[in-house]
Design goal:
Chain A: This is Mss4-like protein. The structure holds two protein chains of two kinds. By secondary structure, chain A is mainly beta. Chain A has one helix and ten strands; from the N terminus they run H-E-E-E-E-E-E-E-E-E-E. By secondary structure, chain B is of the alpha/beta class. Chain B is globular and about 45 Å long. The chains are: A mainly beta, B alpha/beta. The interface between A and B is large, with 60 and 52 residues.
Chain lengths: 164, 218
């Protein structure tokens, strides 16, 4: 592997250098899956099967990331109150993620079992003393996409993308 | 679903002094093609990541733990090491102190992990070649003396990072006693989880039986 750091003075600025390196490396990498947000479906129920399971693979919603979070059929949809710590000051909601209305129940993809039920996911440290963790993309850190407690996990249906 | 058997779950730990770029190493091992933006960085800190990876046509799932800050809480140290199959010890090539601290980290490894656990020393370049304080040769020799793999990697540009993780995982897969016996050790009683040893933690030891049995998730 070529050493990028040995002739710094001749190289373009680090940002550009990183872009070039990445572009170069990208050619040998997998194609990032493209997902659709829930908004793009005619009905919210278009993402469900008869048992309320997800019929699409769930992806990180960030354009250019699209990390595979969960395989289809692993989660089931539930409506529950929006849980307090999800957009807490310890991890403010980035502008690219939709706000959750705490006055109405939120739709969640609910998963129970091992964290290894996920394909790719990141867990934050505990939020205060709540025993809850926030779920973030394991590749780009975008989040909170949901939260976790014990062996239960909730992904906000509006904060994931659906693989076509 | 692919119709293949469930991929083995492997636990990897990242250790080393703070500020050697452990977290960025962890992020860059994935094939993400961009750096994270500030807006998406968690001030709360990442506990661990689950990452699926394909090594030589073989799928594995990794849980990767960054022990940053935990070194101060000696009582929970052993639970972090428990069940780990691979350990990445990182230092910063431009910071001599982080290299000089390595013997202490390896002493800790001798205490907490079995000799068969695969270790890799990673000299993190952080793109500061011009201020190098530890030569590559020095790093390599230290790694040889301590029986571990070695790689210099740039956590910023991704160069070498993925290769480092792949090499480590391949070595683990080539060491069956590390992961094959893991399943029987795990009891299926949901109540017997070692959670009190790591307050508020998510129990990864429940993995094996969950994954092994659920090709279909009904």
């Amino acid at each position: 592997m070529a050493d990028s750091g040995s002739n710094n003075q001749l190289n373009p600025p680090p940002e550009l250098q990183a872009q070039i390196l990445n572009a170069f490396a990208a050619s040998s990498r997998r194609v990032r899956p493209i997902g659709s947000l829930l908004d793009s479906f005619q009905n919210d129920s278009d993402v469900l099967d008869a048992n309320f399971k997800n019929i699409h693979d769930l992806l990180c919603p960030k354009v250019g990331c699209g990390s595979l979070i969960l395989l289809k059929g692993v989660a089931s949809q539930r409506e529950e109150a929006t849980i307090d710590p999800i957009d807490s000051p310890v991890h403010p909601r980035p502008a690219s993620l939709p706000a959750l209305d705490s006055n109405v129940p939120t739709k969640w993809w609910y998963i129970q079992g091992s964290p290894m039920s996920f394909e790719n996911i990141g867990f934050t440290k505990d939020v205060g003393n709540t025993g809850k963790k926030l779920l973030i993309c394991s590749e780009c850190d975008l989040g909170p996409l949901g939260w976790a407690q014990g062996n239960e996990y909730w992904l906000a249906v509006d904060r994931v993308a659906y693989k076509a | 679903m692919a119709g293949s058997e469930a991929p083995p779950n492997l636990k990897l730990l990242l250790i080393g002094n703070s500020s050697v770029g452990k977290s960025s190493l962890l992020m860059r091992f994935t094939d993400a093609q961009f750096l994270p933006e500030d807006e998406s960085s968690a001030t709360i800190g990442v506990d661990f990541r689950v990452c699926k990876m394909e090594i030589g046509g073989r799928r594995v799932k990794l849980s990767i733990w960054d022990t940053a800050g935990q070194e101060r809480f000696r009582t929970i140290t052993s639970s972090y090491y428990r069940g780990a199959q691979g350990i990445i010890v990182a230092y910063d090539i431009s910071n001599r102190e982080t290299f000089d601290a390595l013997p202490r980290w390896f002493t800790e490894l001798d205490t907490y992990v079995t000799p068969s656990v695969v270790k890799m020393l990673v000299g993190n370049k952080l793109d500061k070649e011009f201020s190098r304080a530890v030569s590559e040769d020095e790093g390599r020799k230290f790694a040889q003396r301590n029986g571990c793999l070695f790689l210099e990697a740039s956590a910023k540009t991704n160069v070498g990072v993925r290769e480092a993780f792949q090499e480590l995982v391949e070595k683990i897969l080539d060491t069956p006693e590390l992961w094959a016996p893991a399943a029987p050790r795990i009891t299926s009683t949901a109540t017997a989880k070692p959670q009190q040893s790591m307050p508020g933690s998510i129990d990864l030891s429940a993995n094996a039986q969950d994954n092994a049995s659920s090709g279909c998730s009904c």
